[in-house]
Design goal:
Layout: H1 2-19, E1 21-24, E2 36-43, H2 48-51, E3 56-62, E4 64-66, E5 75-77, E6 81-86, E7 94-100, E8 130-131, E9 134-135, E10 138-140, E11 149-152, E12 177-181, E13 187-188, E14 195-198, E15 202-206, E16 213-220, H3 222-226, E17 239-244, E18 253-254, E19 258-260, E20 267-270, E21 277-283, E22 289-291, E23 298-302, E24 309-317, E25 324-327, E26 331-336, E27 344-346, E28 350-351, E29 356-360, E30 368-373, E31 377-379, E32 386-388, E33 392-397, E34 403-413, E35 417-427, E36 432-439, E37 450-457, E38 467-473, E39 475-478, E40 486-490, E41 498-507, E42 510-511, E43 515-520, E44 530-533, E45 541-546, E46 553-560, E47 565-572, E48 575-579, E49 586-594, E50 597-605
Parallel strand pairs: 10-17, 19-26, 28-35
Antiparallel strand pairs: 1-2, 2-6, 3-5, 3-7, 4-6, 8-9, 8-11, 11-15, 12-14, 12-16, 13-15, 16-17, 18-20, 20-23, 21-24, 22-23, 24-25, 24-26, 27-29, 29-33, 30-32, 30-34, 31-33, 34-35, 36-37, 37-40, 38-41, 39-40, 41-42, 41-43, 44-45, 45-48, 46-47, 46-49, 49-50
Length: 607
């Protein structure tokens, strides 16, 4: 039975194929929008007149309209051909016909074009305009530049080509024409200006000096536009590039922006050179003048001495007609109606009987200087004050005087008033009054305790000695003897002796006399109170008791008077037994360490 069915199907297949119809041209052929395109329903088995007798044709269209009705509504006719106009859209179109009422019913059917590629670029965005192969939305060109530049976009493709639904049409279609619009005065190498069309999506242009604005380019489907009904041009969207040409003067720099009364020293003013500028016009505060060239981008301005104000400059560009003046942003030169405060160039702190030079920087606007000093100082060999036009004087120690002092200079001007500068000094060699010290014990000579000593000078001395020479006596050890401070460890337990600390320092006036302090070596108490019995110790052991201690730990060490350790140990609790077996009779020092503090007591052993 199955073999019979297949045989019948094979026999009638040619007749079924003969009855199929098709629309020509089919949808694989891209079509222009706005053009009259004729489509015909063509029977596969013969001529339309032979096969379509008595047939009715109902035509339907998507994204287009029928030329005869100027409508997209369905259109019924006895004609097997129809003219359509595709819309200017990038979506695909479709034409379909429903064939009914044919005398030969086998010719009834519904052929269709399938998706028709409409060669529309409506709403398509070209790529960003490139300037010398760099895509950008804006581009700056010097005001006077006419150097050629290259403008381009990517070649504009028609959407949907190639189409996977139309494999027989595999090539990409591209726009055949581009419409460019250039700023005023610009031209191409072949002298096209304004708005023009060209097959090129890359062009070389010559800018006009001083002309900027917008470059625009869009695709034009010239092929479809020429045959359109009615005649229209089919464009893409624009791609734009903004050309900026307006020049700007960079910020003015000034050698100084703050002036005092009477200051007529030059102020150097400048701006970076601007391309295309042939000269510069400077605007200065009233009464100011220019020394030397006045038309360059750098000038030397001479203040009036009585005012400040705004400074500006205009760069003059002559490459265009009319010429162009580009103004800078003004800057302000501030003005102070008083004289500036003097500044010392050389002003030593230590003053001796040999004269030292004191000098200041010349004060602009000052006509004279008044020099004054404390009573222990001479100015140019005489007691102050001294009226002078000089910015330098000789300062020396007044015989028989020393200690803290001062030097003062006043700049004077009949027009601008006066200003004063004072400096404190020291007259003569300073004296070391005593040594300050710090360490872990209450007294700097607690046996074997370490302390650091520093000199304390005559009241008010603020100088910095350049070198130090320390001397020590009767210490266990010491640090560097040439530093600004000295660290020593006190000697042992010879209570009849003293520890000595001496120092001399070098100032700009030379070495001071040596200062020496003697410190009695003494017993010290920094911690809990130790008690031991019997005292003197008359047996081979003694009882050690620490006041205030109940169940706390502490350590003990016994030294002889030469600092040698004879015994040590740790204890806990209020009382402990300590053996002295093997220790000969003599005087010893017992040191207790408790809670970070130490206490030392003398112990006598008699056996």
């Amino acid at each position: 039975m199955k073999k019979l069915c297949f045989l019948l199907l094979f026999l009638i297949a040619p007749f079924l194929l003969a009855a199929q119809t098709a629309l020509t041209p089919d949808g694989r052929v891209p079509q222009c929008p706005g053009n009259r395109i004729a489509y015909t329903a063509f029977p596969a088995g013969g001529s339309a007149s032979a096969n379509y007798a008595g047939c009715s044709f109902k035509w339907s269209i998507t994204n287009g309209k029928f030329y005869i009705t100027n409508s997209s509504d369905d259109y019924t006719t006895s004609n097997s051909s129809v003219e359509v106009i595709w819309n200017d859209v990038t979506n695909k179109g479709e034409l379909k016909v429903t064939i009914t009422s044919c005398n030969n019913k086998s010719n009834d059917g519904t052929p269709t074009t399938g998706g028709v590629i409409i060669k529309s670029i409506n709403g398509v965005n070209p790529s960003q305009v490139k300037v010398n192969n760099v895509a950008k939305s804006s581009h700056s060109i010097d005001w006077c530049s006419t150097a050629p530049i290259t403008l381009a976009i990517d070649r504009l493709a028609i959407p949907n080509t190639p189409s996977s639904s139309n494999p027989s049409y595999s090539s990409t279609l591209y726009v055949d024409t581009y419409e460019w619009t250039l700023p005023s005065g610009w031209r191409t190498n072949d002298n096209k200006t304004g708005t023009f069309t060209t097959p090129s999506y890359s062009i070389s242009v010559i800018p006009a000096a001083g002309s900027g604005g917008q470059v625009k380019v869009r695709g034009l489907n010239q092929e479809c536009s020429i045959s359109s009904v009615p005649r229209v041009n089919f464009y893409s969207n624009y791609s734009t590039l903004t050309i900026t040409r307006e020049p700007q003067v960079s910020a003015i720099t000034a050698s100084k922006t703050n002036l005092h009364c009477g200051d007529r020293n030059p102020v150097n003013l400048s701006v970076p050179a601007m391309t295309g500028a042939t000269s510069y016009t400077w605007s200065l505060p009233q009464g100011w003048t220019i020394s030397g060239s006045a038309s360059g981008n750098s000038i030397s301005a001479i203040p009036s001495g009585t005012n400040g104000g705004q400074v500006s400059v205009a760069a003059n560009i002559t490459c265009t007609t009319p010429n162009k003046a580009v103004n800078s942003t003004p800057i302000t030169i501030n003005y102070n109606s008083s004289l500036p405060t003097p500044t010392f160039n050389n002003a030593p702190y230590d003053i001796g009987n040999t004269a030292s030079s004191f000098s200041i920087t010349s004060v602009a606007g000052a006509t004279s200087y008044t020099w004054e000093a404390s009573s222990n100082i001479l100015i140019n060999g005489q007691v102050s004050p001294l009226q002078s036009t000089s910015t330098t004087v000789a300062i020396s120690q007044r015989p028989g005087y020393s200690g803290g002092g001062w030097v003062k200079v006043t700049a004077n001007s009949a027009q601008c008033g006066s200003s004063t500068l004072t400096k404190n000094v020291w007259v003569g060699q300073p004296e070391i009054l005593y040594f300050s010290y710090f360490g872990s014990a209450k007294h700097p000579t607690c046996p074997y305790e370490q302390h650091t000593f520093a000199p304390v000078y005559s009241n008010g001395y603020q100088g910095q000695p350049s070198r130090y020479r320390w001397a020590v006596g009767n210490v266990s050890s010491h640090g560097d003897l040439t530093g600004s401070t000295l660290t020593v460890t006190a000697a042992g337990f010879n209570f009849s002796s003293h520890m000595s600390i001496g120092l001399e320092v070098e100032t700009p006036l030379g070495w001071t006399q040596q200062f020496v302090m003697l410190y009695e070596i003494r017993d010290c108490d920094n911690g809990a109170e130790p008690m031991f019995s019997p005292n003197p110790v008359t047996a081979d052991e003694f009882t050690l008791e620490l006041s205030g201690s109940s169940d706390e730990s502490y350590s003990y060490t016994l030294y002889d008077l030469q600092g040698n350790q004879r015994l040590s140990g740790k204890a806990k609790g209020k009382k402990t037994k300590v053996s002295t077996k093997g220790i000969p009779a003599g005087t010893y020092m017992l040191r207790i360490e408790h809670k970070g503090k130490s206490t030392t007591r003398r112990m006598i052993i008699k056996k």
